[in-house]
Every structure is written in structure tokens, then in C-alpha cells.
């Protein structure tokens, strides 16, 4: 039983480690802010959720006490991680951060210019 | 199990070094904020793994606390970048 529990814990923590390493490589190598926000939000959220699930199973199956605080942390990270990255990339677009040179289409630009024309800003 | 946890901690520390490179070099402030958000998330992973290592469950409250603080910091910085202030007054709307 403890071997099965250890296999479960090691599986979840390994998957989380792979996703965290992918996050770091993505932020290191990708060319502009929006692709970096894409890498940072999705894969780091999934990685930390997998690692916390592994820790939760370790405390539940090996140590024998059920800890709902970790489950609450997983739920909170799942809700707030993508929301934070979305608000961050939207505000940096409005602040004028240019996308990468190889970007093919930019749908938000027309909307943004129409909105500025309607409201008469700048 | 102990060796596996130590290996995991070393891998997470190396990815924190890669994120610190982005914090130092990042061309715009938004890059730095996104990299700091990811640094907070890797810090949560470090706390969780050290909790297994020292065999106590007293540190598990820190996970939720760090998640909430990291989210509030990201929201405050994005509002500062977008509008120039964090808490808007009622008559300036």
C-alpha cells in the first residue's frame, strides 16, 4: 500500500516538475511579452496544481491526515492564475507594448482604435 | 523518496534561476511582473516540497497565503501599468 502511495506521489510531483521546467524554458526563450504570458500562465498553473496534488496525497496516504487547506490552495490557484495573466497582458497592450515582429494578425488593434475614436481620447 | 524530493528541489531552484534572468533582463516592466508571478508560484512549489522533507504540516497554511499575496500583487501592478494609479478616487471616474 505504501509503495502504491509513493508511486502516486512521485508521478504527480514528476509531472509538476516537468511543467515548471517548461515554464522556465518558455520565459527564457520566447520572443515577446504575450507568448511569455501564454507560457507562464498555463504551464505554471498546471505544474503547481500537480505538485500540490502530490503533496496532498503524501499527507493523506502516508501520514494519515486529510488536509483540506491544500485543496483550497489548488482551487484558488486554478481560478486566479489565468485571470492574473489575462489582466497583465491586457494592461500591457493598453500601455503600448508591441507584439513580436512575426505576428500575422492583431484583432485587438482595430477594436482599440475604434474605442479611442468613440471616446475621443488622445 | 528523500533523494527524489531533493532532486525536485534542485530542478525547481534551477528554473527559479531562469526566471530571475527574465526579471533582470526583461525589456518592459510587464515582463518583470509576469516573471515575478511565476517566481511566486515556484516558491509555492518549494514550500510544498520542503513540507514533505521536514515531515510536518505546519507550513501548509503558507501555500494559500503565498497564492493570495501573489495574485494581489499582480492585480495591483497591472492596474498601475494600465491607469497610472492603483486605487482610483470616486470623482476621477
UniProtKB/TrEMBL annotation, chain A:
<feature type="transmembrane region" description="Helical">
    <location>
        <begin position="6"/>
        <end position="28"/>
    </location>
</feature>
<keyword id="KW-1133">Transmembrane helix</keyword>
<comment type="similarity">
    <text>Belongs to the CPA3 antiporters (TC 2.A.63) subunit G family.</text>
</comment>
<dbReference type="InterPro" id="IPR005133">
    <property type="entry name" value="PhaG_MnhG_YufB"/>
</dbReference>
<feature type="transmembrane region" description="Helical">
    <location>
        <begin position="40"/>
        <end position="60"/>
    </location>
</feature>
<keyword id="KW-0813">Transport</keyword>
<keyword id="KW-0050">Antiport</keyword>
<feature type="transmembrane region" description="Helical">
    <location>
        <begin position="66"/>
        <end position="88"/>
    </location>
</feature>
<dbReference type="GO" id="GO:0015385">
    <property type="term" value="F:sodium:proton antiporter activity"/>
</dbReference>
<dbReference type="GO" id="GO:0016020">
    <property type="term" value="C:membrane"/>
</dbReference>
<keyword id="KW-0472">Membrane</keyword>
<keyword id="KW-0812">Transmembrane</keyword>
<dbReference type="Pfam" id="PF03334">
    <property type="entry name" value="PhaG_MnhG_YufB"/>
</dbReference>
<protein>
    <submittedName>
        <fullName>Cation:proton antiporter</fullName>
    </submittedName>
</protein>
Automatic annotation (TrEMBL), chain B:
<keyword id="KW-1003">Cell membrane</keyword>
<feature type="transmembrane region" description="Helical">
    <location>
        <begin position="58"/>
        <end position="77"/>
    </location>
</feature>
<keyword id="KW-0406">Ion transport</keyword>
<feature type="transmembrane region" description="Helical">
    <location>
        <begin position="33"/>
        <end position="52"/>
    </location>
</feature>
<keyword id="KW-0050">Antiport</keyword>
<comment type="similarity">
    <text>Belongs to the CPA3 antiporters (TC 2.A.63) subunit F family.</text>
</comment>
<dbReference type="GO" id="GO:0005886">
    <property type="term" value="C:plasma membrane"/>
</dbReference>
<protein>
    <submittedName>
        <fullName>Monovalent cation/H+ antiporter subunit F</fullName>
    </submittedName>
</protein>
<dbReference type="GO" id="GO:0015385">
    <property type="term" value="F:sodium:proton antiporter activity"/>
</dbReference>
<keyword id="KW-0812">Transmembrane</keyword>
<feature type="transmembrane region" description="Helical">
    <location>
        <begin position="6"/>
        <end position="24"/>
    </location>
</feature>
<keyword id="KW-0472">Membrane</keyword>
<dbReference type="InterPro" id="IPR007208">
    <property type="entry name" value="MrpF/PhaF-like"/>
</dbReference>
<dbReference type="Pfam" id="PF04066">
    <property type="entry name" value="MrpF_PhaF"/>
</dbReference>
<keyword id="KW-0813">Transport</keyword>
<keyword id="KW-1133">Transmembrane helix</keyword>
Amino acid at each position: 500500500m505504501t509503495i502504491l502511495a509513493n508511486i502516486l506521489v512521485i508521478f504527480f510531483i514528476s509531472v509538476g516538475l516537468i511543467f515548471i521546467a517548461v515554464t522556465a524554458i518558455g520565459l527564457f526563450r520566447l520572443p515577446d511579452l504575450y507568448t511569455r504570458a501564454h507560457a507562464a500562465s498555463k504551464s505554471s498553473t498546471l505544474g503547481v496544481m500537480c505538485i500540490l496534488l502530490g503533496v496532498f496525497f503524501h499527507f493523506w496516504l502516508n501520514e494519515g491526515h486529510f488536509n483540506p487547506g491544500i485543496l483550497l490552495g489548488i482551487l484558488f490557484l486554478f481560478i486566479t492564475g489565468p485571470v492574473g495573466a489575462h489582466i497583465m497582458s491586457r494592461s500591457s497592450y493598453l500601455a503600448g507594448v508591441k507584439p513580436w515582429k512575426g505576428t500575422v494578425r492583431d484583432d485587438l488593434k482595430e477594436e482599440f482604435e475604434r474605442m479611442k475614436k468613440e471616446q475621443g481620447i488622445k | 523518496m528523500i533523494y527524489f524530493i531533493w532532486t525536485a528541489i534542485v530542478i525547481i531552484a534551477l528554473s527559479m534561476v531562469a526566471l530571475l534572468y527574465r526579471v533582470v533582463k526583461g525589456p518592459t516592466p510587464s515582463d518583470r511582473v509576469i516573471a515575478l508571478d511565476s517566481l511566486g508560484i515556484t516558491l509555492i512549489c518549494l514550500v510544498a516540497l520542503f513540507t514533505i522533507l521536514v515531515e510536518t504540516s505546519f507550513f501548509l497554511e503558507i501555500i494559500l497565503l503565498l497564492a493570495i499575496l501573489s495574485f494581489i500583487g499582480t492585480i495591483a501592478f497591472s492596474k498601475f501599468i494600465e491607469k497610472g494609479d492603483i486605487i482610483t478616487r470616486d470623482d476621477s471616474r
